[in-house]
Write a structure and sequence with these properties.
This protein has 117 residues and is mainly β. Helix content is 0%, strand content 54%. The chain contains no helices and 11 strands.
């Protein structure tokens, strides 16, 4: 592991996700602290992390200029969103889970249709 840049609880509070400098996202059991998943795919540090409201998706923001959307239950290979020209520093789902926003060092915020992701 490496330094931790961000954390997020699942909507029901049962899981905690961490964004790490070692290019990974890790999902933990919030009660026991046991690591449940190690999600790999980013090629730079991960800075931001967010669960969708229903807990079915997990989005990560990275210095590799991408946002990845993971299946939170299986940890399946992510969908990779590429449209920033600098480090992506934050991600957030809308309350109803229909939108995903990303913020970047390229001075932009992008809003995505999360339902199609």
């Amino acid at each position: 592991t490496d330094y931790v840049n961000g954390v997020a609880f699942s909507g029901d509070g049962s899981k905690l996700a961490s964004a790490s400098g070692d290019e990974t996202v890790r999902v933990w059991d919030a009660a026991s602290g046991k690591e449940l998943q190690k999600l790999e795919g980013h090629t730079e540090a991960v800075y931001g992390i967010a669960f969708s409201g229903d807990g079915s998706k997990l989005a990560s923001a990275s210095g590799d200029e991408t946002v990845r959307v993971w299946d939170a239950a299986s940890g399946k290979e992510p969908q990779k969103l590429e449209c920033h020209n600098d480090c992506v520093t934050a991600v957030a789902f809308s309350g109803d889970g229909s939108k995903l926003a990303s913020a970047s060092g390229d001075e932009t915020v992008r809003v995505w249709d999360a339902a199609s992701r």
